[in-house]
Design goal:
alpha+beta; 7-stranded mixed β-sheet; 3-stranded antiparallel β-sheet; globular
């Protein structure tokens, strides 16, 4: 999505932009793919934040892009082993749900502190200068919004999430719920993340949430209309410097460009260019940012006989999955009126759970296939235990994806997804930059900005384009 958003902004500015996409759909692990005539979102997720002060709302407004979305509230139903509850945008409803589910915890006190920080941060996120700062003037330009954020958010900004939460969280189930939300939004639990990013992550489900009709790919297609040339099924094999240009060797032919933006993770960028400085930087980042996640996904279609008020998104908690080491998975169900994802009386389902990459490395084909079958069975057993409707309904073939699948199709290094965990030791100034050692070679994506999901990647792309095209945004 980073490449599409950056290309859309530059195309809107009147630049000659060519987007090269290796697959037959846009967006990689954020897009919508087709198998046997049926469509599935690659990942289980919601579409968040179209308000004027939020990244996607800001971009769609200034670019004049109309997005095919439908508002959803509640954004999510959470299923614990012995209870379930919903996350609403309305804060009174949210407190009522949490109080009913966890009567012994101090929700008012905790969420007052969460919203104090997150409200201040969301209103300032678009006013920040390009990140990270690369000059004294850019460092100084951080002072005003930074001071305002500190004044409005208070001293909690500088603390760990777990230290702030400790005064209010009294029960283990509530702690587990909060940590599993943070794992999705921060890629790390409360003891590892700063409260600033933790508050943004915990408030994520309480923002304006949407389902994209036509799948996440439909939102990407809408933004991509701003890009003059979009070539799918065009794999970039090699990039060379040639005088003042870059020469890109692709499966479609050779192209030249003055500037190149790679939507490539920071662990694999040097694989495309033979440059010692880039190789050294890549090796340094592999050593520094070793801790990263993969995902196991299930995709299938299910006969639509769900009640009208059945939620589209669910997080299901369970005992540790022996095949992934995860403790929850996320489910997204297509809207019943989605002409693309909900066709022929069926609805599209995507389930996703975290996994350690090492669990899928070095396996023989026989053991790999056996592990896929085992993890599929484990997830389905927990799914039908919490949502019996999924046991009763007719279900079509299940497509199971692993880090190997993501590495094959999206070409992310090792099959990693979700970017770099937002741990305190690197957040925010230790995060990789969008700038490379080579002039006019840049990066976007979830490993080049200290944020997660659509909003984080959008802010990273906005920051880069502001540097490349001062005055555009």
């Amino acid at each position: 999505m980073g490449g599409v958003l950056a290309g859309a902004m530059l195309g809107h500015a009147g630049r000659d932009v060519l987007l090269l996409e290796a697959m037959d759909y846009l967006g990689g692990c954020s897009g919508t793919f087709e198998r046997s005539g049926h469509f599935y979102n690659a990942g289980a997720t919601t579409f968040v934040g179209l308000g004027p002060a939020l990244p996607l709302g800001y971009l769609s407004r200034i670019l004049g892009v109309s997005l095919p979305v439908k508002s959803i509230d509640p954004s999510l139903r959470v299923h614990l082993p012995d209870r379930s509850f919903r996350l609403f945008r309305d804060r009174t409803q949210l407190m009522d749900e949490l109080t009913a589910a966890f009567p012994d915890d101090d929700h008012q006190g905790l969420w007052r502190r969460i919203f104090r920080v997150s409200d201040a941060a969301w209103t300032k996120i678009l006013s920040l200068p390009p990140f990270p700062p690369k000059s004294l003037s850019e460092v100084l330009s951080f002072l005003r919004p930074g001071a305002s954020l500190l004044m409005r958010g208070g001293p909690d900004l500088l603390r760990s999430a777990s230290s702030v939460m400790a005064r209010h969280v009294k029960t283990t189930p509530y702690q587990n719920f909060l940590d599993q939300i943070l794992l999705i939004t921060n890629q790390a639990p409360s003891e590892e993340v700063p409260f600033l990013s933790g508050a943004l992550g915990l408030s994520y489900p309480t923002l304006d949430n949407y389902t994209v009709l036509g799948g996440m790919g439909a939102a990407l297609e809408a933004f991509a209309q701003k890009i003059p040339w979009v070539y799918r099924k065009t794999l970039v094999r090699k990039i060379e410097r040639a005088g003042g240009f870059f020469r890109l060797q692709t499966t479609r032919g050779t192209y030249e460009a003055q500037r190149v933006i790679l939507n490539r993770d920071v662990w694999g960028v040097a694989d495309l260019l033979d440059d010692p400085a880039l190789a050294r930087l890549q090796n340094k980042r592999k050593a520094r940012f070793r801790q990263r996640w993969g995902a196991v996904t299930l995709h299938f279609r299910i006969r639509d006989f769900f009640p009208e008020n059945f939620e589209l998104h669910h997080q299901i908690h369970h005992e540790p999955n022996p095949w992934t080491k995860s403790r929850s998975f996320f489910l997204s169900l297509s809207d019943p009126k989605d002409d693309r994802l909900s066709a022929e009386g069926f609805r599209s389902v995507t389930l996703s759970t975290h996994t350690f990459l090492s669990l899928w490395e070095g396996l023989s084909r026989e053991i790999y296939l056996e592990r896929k079958e085992q993890v599929t069975r484990f997830i389905l057993e927990n799914l039908t235990r919490h949502l019996p409707l999924f046991r009763q309904a007719e279900r079509e073939e299940i497509l199971t994806g692993t880090p190997r699948t993501f590495a094959r199709y999206t070409r992310r290094t090792g099959g990693t997804v979700g970017g770099i965990p937002l741990r305190r030791e690197i957040f925010p100034l230790g995060y990789p930059s969008s700038f490379s050692p080579l002039p006019h070679l840049y990066l976007v994506g979830d490993s080049t900005f200290p944020g997660q999901g659509w909003p984080g990647v959008a802010v990273g792309a906005i920051g880069l384009v502001r540097r490349l095209e001062p005055g555009l945004l």
